[in-house]
Design goal:
The complex is a heterodimer. By secondary structure, chain A is mainly beta. Chain A is built from no helices and 13 strands. In chain B, β6 (about 55-60) and β7 (about 60-65) form a beta hairpin. The chains are: A mainly beta, B mainly beta.
């Protein structure tokens, strides 16, 4: 079974631009979560999508948004990029079994550098 | 919301020693506690997890203990090996939610 994939793997943007990142979950996984990883703050939760609906949202400004498609693939968008948005963006997918959520499987991440 | 504190931030041990990483959480509704290992340049991977109806869980050299009353859980690695060197993250989530709140990570260095 293929793992979680993310594209692109690396991005370089300049301040003020916008960026779209993509995540394809493991087949059969309907939940996709996004995390921002930085050396100082660790892994911070951005948002989670399930069945094309945003179920949870972390404490990030409105410049960060996302969506999920009917095939469970997800995208996140960051508008008006700031230098502080430079980070590794990880997505993770999981599935429910017996009312409990199982392991979150992470993708390789997209390394975003804002100049 | 949930807050997870993790200590220490760095841990250096000699090969063969034991390593212990501790986490505390704030939300009494949390009942799922996974631990992830992230090697340099790689994605986080689950190494062990525990649910609140269990106090301890072991998997070979790795064990996790949970104290719900005190709201803390710990990762224990015995007979450490150089390949155990990585950043370890603890996390917590509540029943019915797949969202994880992570601690800030512990960099474990195992010297031969």
């Amino acid at each position: 079974k293929a793992g979680v994939t993310q594209t692109p793997r690396y991005l370089i943007k300049t301040r003020g631009q916008q960026v779209t990142l993509s995540c394809s979950p493991i087949s059969g996984h309907r939940s996709v979560s996004w995390y921002q990883q930085t050396p100082g703050q660790g892994l911070q939760f951005l948002f989670e999508y399930f069945s094309e609906t945003q179920r949870n949202k972390g404490n990030f400004p409105g410049r960060f948004s996302g969506r999920q498609f009917s095939n469970s693939r997800s995208e996140m968008n960051v508008s008006t990029l700031e230098l502080g948005d430079s980070a590794l963006y990880l997505c993770a997918s999981s599935k429910e079994a017996g009312g409990l959520w199982g392991e979150q499987f992470f993708g390789p991440g997209t390394r975003l550098t804002v100049l | 919301g949930e807050n997870v504190e993790q200590h220490p931030s760095t841990l250096s041990v000699q090969e063969g020693d034991s390593a212990v990483i501790k986490c505390t959480y704030s939300d009494s509704a949390s009942n799922y506690f996974p631990w992830y290992k992230q090697e340099l340049g790689k994605r986080p991977q689950l190494i062990i997890d525990i649910r609140s109806n269990v106090g301890e869980k072991k998997d070979q050299r790795i064990a996790v203990t949970l104290n719900k009353t005190a709201k803390h859980f710990s990762l224990h690695i015995t007979e450490t090996q150089p390949e155990d060197s990585a950043v370890y993250f603890c996390a917590a989530s509540a029943e019915g939610y797949s969202t994880l709140t992570f601690g800030k990570g512990t960099m474990l260095l195992v010297s031969p």
